Amino acid sequence: MSQARIPSVGPARIVRRGLIMSVVGLVGLAAVYVLALGYTPVEARQGLAQKIFYLHVPSAWSALLAFSLVGIASALYLWLHDQRLDRFAAASAEVGVAFSLVMLTTGPIWAKPIWGTWWTWDARLTLTLFLFFLFIGYLALRAAVHDRAERARFSAVVGILGMLLVPFIHLSVYLFRTLHPQPIVLKPSEPSLPPEMLRTLLVATVVFTLLYLGLVTTRYGLALADDAREEAHDSA
Amino acid sequence: MARAIRLVLAVAAKDIRAELRSRTALLSALVFAALVLVVFNFARDPTALAAATLAPSVLWVTFALAAMVAMNRAFTVERENSALDGLLLAPVSREALFLGKLLANLAFVGTVELVTLPLFTLFFNVSLWPHLPGILGVTALATIGFVAVGTIFSAMAVRTRFAELMLPVLLLPFMVPPLIGAVQVTSRLLADRPLSEMWGWLRLLALYDIVFVTLCTLAFSAVVDE
Q1: CA 20 to 30 Å from A208, out of A137, B24, B81, B143?
Q2: Nearest of A176, A174, A171 to residue B185 by alpha carbon
Q3: pTM (two decimals)
Q4: CA-nearest residue of chain A to B171?
């Protein structure tokens, strides 16, 4: 079926496009650093620790984006059985793990000076931790199934179930937390976010989205090349 | 409809009959549950923590671990002599097949839970008797959902490398919402709290059951069909 379909763009070109996007994203990341350190004002109560906000929030955004797209691509795969969707979901999950790791490391670095603790079982933290675990489980499953079609079907099922699990985890940890209130403020009060901060955050979000796209494209191209090699190997 | 129900029951009966003839898996799961309870007893400082404080968590972690061990069995037995291929060739819809497997797994996990409960009261000196209907109800409500997810995952896991490791890694995140809910309800039951304090959790558990039983039933054909 779609197996015989010859991709219109070769893997090498896709990888090159992905790398270009990623490099642009990295340059953008340098710009975010400059903006965060030079342009935005120092937050009155949190001091310099608040600067991590410009990395933490956009990486959380990219991780969530990656995760939602894995779920959507999985659902579409079971419907259309197009290998490209499976390859995309796998690429998105891998990149999602990277962004989740950025989010999960920058968070505690900020939390220690501000909350006085590295980790707390707050609803949002718990949820993101489980997103990370779901990503890992998804990728572990992919690595453990040899047959390509089987791997695609299995991981699509996990992707869909995972997407539906997220609201349940959110609801249960939220109920759990509200029944045991913790004396912390979840977010710094935001309504009066200065325009410099908001602009920098917007730039950072665009940059992180670009990085996500660049990395996923690269990974997608590599997976395509891998499949082509495997096919050549099988037919030889 | 009646035919579908008969098929579901036939698949479940086949599994239960096969299990009752050997009883090895059931006995091992029971011994495992008892051992977890014993280990828990020594994992707490009796002078610092009263058994009753820890009881709901102990009970549910034991249930979760025992269920995981038990569910690994569901499709490993089908792998021997390619039994699953035979089952798939039979004129049984995938939905009926899944529900039958789910039913058998529920019977299996339910038996382990039923035997664990008296052991738990014995070891942890918690009187469950006055709360028994409530405890059984919440146990059923929480178990159905995660056993449904576990059934579909074990069907996948047996076809992977490291099957025994794959199931827990995939399943544990899915056990979190039912586990949190069940622990919350159990501790309120043991503390004689009114039903209104558990209502939110019970609805969450019921919703989880409905969503995941439906979804897993529909997704099962994607797992077993080439």
Answers
A1: A137
A2: A176
A3: 0.86
A4: A137
